[in-house]
Amino acid sequence: MKNRVSRFRLWIFCLLFCAGISTVAVAESPDRTQFGRDISVGASEEVGDVTCFGCSIRVRGHVAGDVTTFGGSIVVEDQGQIDGDATTFAGGVRLGRQTKVDGDLTVFGGAIRRDPQATVDGSTTNFGVPISLLFLVVIPCAVLGGLIALIVFVIRRITRPSLPAAA
Fold this sequence. Notes:
By secondary structure, the protein is α/β, with parallel strands linked by helices. The chain is 35% helix and 29% strand.
């Protein structure tokens, strides 16, 4: 039991150390990455890539790279500009008046609301809710379930006691 506790503490220490190092690296770069906290790029700000897990991104300034959200939405307003691609998984995109996306705009599992004066120089792709749910939830769950069933079958096959042959 004591050995388990020391291993657990070692894992926690390593996890916290890695998280601390990654936070320092993110703080020194113009890129922004957040987990569970919304990101806002102000009107006078210029940043690199912006990535958000479980949160939303609001752009009023200039993003020199890509904008990506997983489980959140992207809102570009007040003449905001994205030089790269804008991609969201399980969220929507709203482009306000006189906003610009120089790259592609891709939405999986959400809606695109776009002002007529907003411009997208690349292609615009919207995988609606039924298709995206199929790709993002149903198929991975089915594959994972199949792998678990295969592992259980193999373990049962290996651990099954053998019966003596009848004479």
